[in-house]
Fold each of these.
Amino acid sequence: MSDAADDIRAGFCAIVGLPNVGKSTLLNRIVGRHLVAVSSKPQTTRDRIVGVHAIMLPDETPDRAQIAYVDTPGVQDGHGPLRRYMRDAAMMAASDADCVLVVIDATHRSGRTPDRLDQPDAAGLGDASRHKPVIVALNKIDRIPRPDLLPLMEAWANFTPDVVIVPISAQYGDNVDELERAVARKLPVGPRLFPDEMVTDRSPRFIAQEIIREQLYHQLGKELPYACAVLIEQWSDKTKDEIAIGAVIVVERDSQKGIVVGKQGARIREIGIAARQAVGAALGGKTVHLNLFVKVLEEWSRGEAGLRKLGYGEQGS
């Protein structure tokens, strides 16, 4: 049994929303680490990823909170096992959480009001969110005129009873502290869920895998095949400050392999250079030796066996 004097506000908060609204940018901002892949390409996030953050709540009882944020893929309609897997991950996170943080792109005129969540591709997300305590984060306020903000807040005021609306900029950190306090107030009181030093439920291997995949998005842009994945096959801690990684970039066709490798291997070399630096920084400034290979696994995204082979669905790996 826990000592009530040690109780805090502690629980899980699912970060949900449509694709490309800034969910992963927000989680990275909150935990102060490059934890999740971020790009302008929709559905960069494919897995549920937990980031843990503790905050103080001055003049409140309890005066501390430990929030386990669950970043989720953007909800989007579509066919195939990979899209279904991502959609299910978001819905399950919303259903399991103590509260739901709905992130809205305030610059997206056709997707920033509550009626967008009543449309068929997002209706499940809207329903799941309304069954939990809800916080709405109106993101990217640094990019909209101030007169547009008040009507938008008023539009969300009737989304659910007791909804809390916080305008933020995940990119620059505006109002993120206020947002965290709003989330904390929705959580139950009880013992902490994780050790104080814990930041994520994911291993360094998974974080490295995410960051390598992120570099694919940055380097390839519109050329990047949708069904492109990264699998780390070798990991060796050479010293406490030096890691050797062997990673495979998986595509579905030979033509896609050519895009990733580039002329005389130029593209994959550039990806490797950028990924080494980014992975090293994310893992605390370690020196990273990275070998990248490209492999064709035909139609991997269209079957459950292919998804399992590339680790989708294996939490905490």
Amino acid sequence: MAFPKPFYRWRPHPWHGLEVGPKPPYLVHAFIEITPFDLVKYEVDKITGYLYLDRPQRSSSQHPALYGFIPRTYCGARVRDLSPKAKDGDGDPLDVCVISERPVTRGEVVVTAKVIGGLQMVDHSEADDKIIAVVDGDHVWGAIDDISDLPPVLVERLQHYFLTYKMIPGHESNVSIESVYSAEHARAVINASIEDYRDEYE
């Protein structure tokens, strides 16, 4: 019996082996590492591609959306250049938060997501942008084309989470969110990260 094409004899690496998406930078794939129901931080190991327990969450806050990364992206010089207060890219794939009306309770799933905006985050002087997207075809959020159409409280929750999830009492925070940006700028960041990936790995 012949295998269907394409067929992966082994599981592809989620960062390097999956496609960016069906229509980047408008529709992208998001590999989900963390759901709003997780109380620990999971992260894909860059070498093996397996999901590792990175750390228990220090605070009681929970992520307000699905969280992961866009395959075959890299935050390097081009992404840094779009973030005026950053001195470098963070050297990781581009992070993405995906809003879903229906609960998604498990990670290590691939979601097709429509890009609607992003948060220009700087972490220890490194560009660490968070792309905001909605599940493609979502019956509640799927018609939204720009972050300005989201209820402001959802954007506030995302900002609050990222400003506080690394906080340690008695220590100064090294994380800032410089702006909330539109779908148009988010698409520019995604294109920059795709080019950074090609420079780094192809």
Amino acid sequence: MASSFILTPRLLAAVEELPLLAETVVEGFLDGLHRSPFLGYSTEFSAYRSYTQGDNLRHLDWKVWARTDELYVKQFEDDTNLRCQIFLDTSASMDFGEGVVHKFSYARLLAAALAQLMVRQRDAPGLILFGPENRQAIPAAATRQQAVEIFSLLASARATGGTFLGTDLFGIVHTMIRRGLAIVISDCFTADESCLELLRQLRAQRQEVILFQTLAPEEMELPYTGEFIMEDCESAAEVVVHADEFRREYQRRVTAFCEGIRQECLKLEVDYYRLRTDEPLDRALIAYLERRQMV
């Protein structure tokens, strides 16, 4: 069973000093912390451009017209806030591990820390839980109560059932018409390429995407000895394994699997980061955020 869900002050204090700045600029309003490439008419003057048919006449600069006899439209640069949707895998494969290194508890804590971080810097986080049935969603919003709503949903979330990413989830993705950030937290254990398809769909919607592939140390190393039965927690399929004989081949396959995910992320221009649940989350998150700031 999963350990209790606790959002520790140590974790929040550790990440509070490192704002998660998007690598691409997005729409909205946020006191100048993020800049948008989309030109509107509400904030800071940016430049002039020639008038074209259909432009709003209210934005013509009549003083320039009086001097030059040419029609020019004022352009302004919007200050923007970051809209981020956090996608959390709630399939049964995430229900693995013991105590403080339980994979789903670790993933929930990561989602909560990122949501709290974004609320603190006045960004707009949202949350989507994807698994076999549940597609619960909290739309992205920049309100004081947003973190509370996200924490509440995370605290009640459970990892169960198979991983099936279908039309209902992709339907939510297709509503993300504004540029923003999408964070996917998953072990990427799917029988097909549906996890990669989620990344493709998000990129097609012009989202900057970060994938946190979250794995337990046992899944990486196979530290067991002797003969035992491995059971697929999603399909209940069983296979007898001689750990000492199979360990090297197992580790090779896991490494190849993770490398395959990383290579696909490179092709899609998705920021890939692998997390191990035996690594303190505050250290891992600090290292990642520092790397993003350097980039």
